[in-house]
Amino acid sequence: MARAPRTRDRNGDQAQGPGASGLRALRSARRSDAPAGPGYKWVALSNTTLGVLIATMDASIVIISLPAIFRGIGLDPLAPGNIGYLLWMILGYLLVSAVLVVVLGRLGDMYGRVRIYNLGFLVFACASIALSLDPFRTGAGALWLILWRIVQAFGGSMLTANSAAILTDAFPARQRGTALGINQITALAGQFLGLLAGGLLAAVDWRAVFWVSVPVSVAGTVWSYLSLRETATGRRGRIDWLGNITFAGGAGILLAGITYGIQPYGSSATGWGNPWVLAGLIGGGALLLLFCYVETRVAEPMFQLALFKVRAFAAGNLAALLTAIARGGLQFMLIIWLQGIWLPLHGYAFEDTPLWAGIFMLPLTLGFLIAGPLSGYLSDKFGARVFSTVGLVVVAGSFLGLLTLPVDFDYGLFAALLLLNGLGQGMFSSPNTSSIMGSVPPEYRGVASGMRSTFQNSGTALSIGVFFSLMISGLASSLPAALMSGLTAHGVPADAAGHAASLPPVSTLFATFLGNNPVEHLLSSGGTLAHLSAAQRATLTGHTFFPQLVSGPFHHGLTIVFSVAAGMALVSALASAMRGGPRSAYDNPAPGRPAATAEPRETARRRHDACS
Questions:
Q1: Whether this model's pTM surpasses 0.85
Q2: Which intervals hold domain Major facilitator superfamily (MFS) profile (predicted)?
């Protein structure tokens, strides 16, 4: 994108005289260099909302589509040796997003937030095209997809790391909560809309899952280059290479250790006893501690630890981290609950459950879309603390309500609880984001946006490790015996039943997660089903056998998961209630005037309250 003339101040006022060169006059006539008018903030909102929508949709669109994707490349995702491919297809995107957003936010502060954002759209578009053109099959095809998903996550991180900072620059404090609320809720809703879109597109063709991103990302690239412009002055400085290396290495190794921790190791259902996993957890943690030490010693640190001295920033990010963990646990557990148990019990074929699971979770997305912009607008007037705190209490209440439901629940009550959870998360997310971004100096908004995204993305990745481990451990204690007795009772030979029961519970768990019939998958490969009677085959591969078999162990694990999630929501509410108000001097006083005299006292007080 063309750079703004150096003689233009940060509000776009012309400072050059009549003797300016023809080249400079030509550049100033271009739309991207024109002063930001009153309508520019809405252009920035619409563009950044599109960016975070496509970035977050692609983080989840693959989850539902994995069976079709792996069938398309000729690879069984549930074979024990292929579990790693499956996990990295899901978590590789999240891991890169969690690790890189701070770095990219810092680069946005230094070299221009719009410039990094525009480049992110271009990288995302190129990666989407490469994903849809996978030329390989089996393991090579899976590696192609994983590597280009990582590149796509790199572009998506550029978008998410700078979108909130661009909006904070473009909008005045009295409207910032509304703008950030729309942007944030779109990002959260994109995670669930991706599940629905994945189910629809995978039924057409597995490549369509990646095709859908191509026209959107290409159009977004062109539009962002033509419409967005820098409205804040970049602060040049040196790149903190040691900080970048220790943070990326520490966070990457730690999250990779968590990823492999949910895979079986030896005779154990999970890999938390694996020496390599332990080494990753310890080594990653040590590198992050070293990173914190480095950041206190360098002149221009990547990660502004001093921002945590701002109470609103520290409390808001703590609440965001815990809420992201709870939300991630809810998302994945609901998919397993619906696809593996409830929908089959109500007559839905396993092949159709991914699509219908996305449809039946729409009340959660609807709650986001209703409460997010509304709470953002109201928080501009009445402050962020009340809305974010009450929203988290509502979230905790919805988790407790889900605990009371039986496995085969009444959908009306279930939908009401999902709507309540979505409303609560919408009430929290918009005001919390506005409070975090309004609490930091303008020159650090890019890195603050990246830090906020890091906590949110890390929470999602952590939730998979934490809650899947809890669920797998619960299944490992009772599922093998239940499978053994259930299969032998319906004519399956003892050796075949024992083989099926001895497979890692993670395979069975991911079978339900991906909308496959686990019993059919376990017995078809060895030809066992062919030696059974038609009635026995119909019973074992029907809609109700496996859901009824696993409902007891699953509900026990679900109780643990939702209890932990409710506790996290309550701790988040406490942290949110303890936030303080940000300094009004950070709300972009007019250029050339001191912050204390940039506006009347009453106006300054209203702007301060709007961000508190």
A1: no
A2: 44-519
